[in-house]
Design a protein that fits this description.
Blueprint (H helix, E strand, L loop, with lengths): L7 E2 L4 E2 L8 E7 L3 H12 L8 E7 L6 H6 L4 E5 L5 H11 L4 E4 L4 E3 L3 H9 L6 E3 L2 E3 L4 H18 L14 E4 H7 L9 H12 L5 E3 L5 E3 L5 H18 L10 H15 L3 H25 L9 H7 L1
Parallel strand pairs: 3-4, 3-6, 4-5, 8-11, 9-12
Antiparallel strand pairs: 1-2, 6-10, 7-12, 8-10
Length: about 325
C-alpha cells in the first residue's frame, strides 16, 4: 500500500491533517556519529510539527568521539547509553524508553525533511497501519546517483504496495512503527544488519501486507551516500546480510521481469532520455553484481523459515 501525498491548501500553505495528534518518539542510534549528528538533530528541532507531539531519543552505543556530549547540547533531546554492541541493541533500548504511540527511526547521518514528523503523523492516523517507510535521497553527488535513488524509491513503493510478503523489506533510516507491534511481536532481533527487514517481514506475515505502507511524502536525505562507490558498498552489505538472515525468515529478491518493470517506471518518472536510461541501467547492473557478490561472500545456504515461537524466544 502506498500513502498518497496530502492535499495542500494554497491559501494557508499547510496540509489538511486528520487525526495527526499521534505522539511520536524518534529513536536515533549513534556510534561515533559526530560528523553528521548536529545536522540530524537540527533538522528534527526544525520540524513544522508541534514540539509537544514528539520526542527525540539518541541512544549512544559506545562512541569515543564525543557524540553523547554533542547530542546533550541540543535542547529537549534525551540521551541514553546502551552498552551492548550493535545498532539494533541501541534501537531496542530506545524502544523501551519511548513514550510514543508511534516510534520513528532514522540514523545520525540522515536529515529529515521539515515535514517528516507531520507526514508520519498523518499517515499513522490510519489505525490499521503498523509500519511506514518513505523515500531516501542522496547527499548531492551526480545526477546518475540521484537516478539510482529514484530507482530504489520506486522499488520500495512497488514492493510495499504489492501483496508478496516474501519481497517485503524495511530500512530503519526512514521507518515508523506502531509501538504495540513491538509489544506483540517482540523487539528487533539483535543481528549485525537486516533486522529491520526481518521485522517488516514478520509484520506482513503475522498481520497482513496491508499493515505495511510506503509514503512518498516522508523523506530523509542520507548524508553518507554522496557517490556511487558508497552506494555499491552498501548494496554489497545488503546482499551479504540478506543471505545470512534468510534462514530466519526466507525472502526472495525481485525477479528480472519485476526489476525491468521498476526500471521502466523510474525512467518514465524522471523523463529520462535513451542515453540517460542506458547509463542508469548500466549503473544498476553494477549494483546488482555488487549485491550478488555480497550474497556469495556470506557462504551460507538458505534454510527453512523461522517458526513463530522461535522468533519470540530469539527476540
Amino acid at each position: 500500500m502506498s500513502i498518497p501525498s496530502p492535499a495542500v491548501d494554497s491559501t494557508r500553505g499547510t496540509s489538511h491533517l486528520r487525526g495527526a495528534s499521534v505522539f511520536i518518539s524518534v529513536v536515533i542510534p549513534t556510534y561515533d556519529a559526530s560528523r553528521h549528528l548536529d545536522a540530524c538533530l537540527d533538522a528534527l528541532a526544525a520540524q513544522d510539527h508541534p514540539a509537544r507531539d514528539y520526542e527525540v531519543i539518541v541512544v549512544d552505543n559506545g562512541s569515543t568521539d564525543g557524540s553523547p556530549a554533542l547530542a546533550r547540547r541540543h535542547p529537549g533531546v534525551t540521551v541514553l547509553e546502551e552498552p551492548t554492541p550493535g545498532v539494533y541493541a541501541a534501537r531496542n533500548c530506545g524502544i523501551r524508553r519511548a513514550r510514543g504511540e508511534v516510534i520513528a527511526f532514522t540514523d545520525p547521518d540522515c536529515v529529515a525533511d521539515r515535514s517528516w514528523i507531520r507526514e508520519i503523523a498523518r499517515a499513522m492516523s490510519e489505525p490499521g497501519l503498523g509500519v511506514l517507510c518513505g523515500p531516501r535521497a542522496p547527499a548531492g553527488g551526480s545526477r546518475l546517483l540521484g537516478a539510482v535513488f529514484d530507482y530504489e524509491n520506486v522499488k520500495a513503493e512497488f514492493v510495499l504496495g504489492g501483496g508478496d510478503e516474501e519481497l517485503y523489506y524495511g530500512y530503519c533510516n526512514n521507518m515508523a512503527v506502531r509501538k504495540r507491534l513491538f509489544e506483540t511481536l517482540g523487539p528487533f532481533l539483535e543481528r549485525p544488519r537486516g533486522a529491520d527487514t526481518l521485522f517488516v517481514r514478520k509484520v506482513a506475515q503475522e498481520l497482513s501486507c496491508a499493515a505495511v505502507a510506503y509514503a512518498p511524502s516522508v523523506v530523509v536525505t542520507h548524508l553518507e551516500i554522496d557517490r556511487l562507490r558508497v552506494y555499491y558498498k552498501k548494496v554489497f552489505l545488503y546482499g551479504r546480510h540478506r543471505r545470512r538472515n534468510n534462514h530466519i525468515l526466507r525472502s526472495r529478491p525481485l525477479g528480472l521481469a519485476e526489476r525491468l518493470d521498476v526500471f521502466r517506471r523510474t525512467a518514465a518518472l524522471g523523463g529520462h532520455s535513451r542515453l540517460r536510461s542506458a547509463a542508469l541501467l548500466a549503473t544498476l547492473g553494477v549494483g546488482a553484481l555488487a549485491w550478488w557478490l555480497g550474497g556469495a561472500s556470506a557462504g551460507l545456504r538458505p534454510g527453512a523459515a523461522f517458526p513463530s515461537g522461535l522468533w519470540r524466544r530469539a527476540a
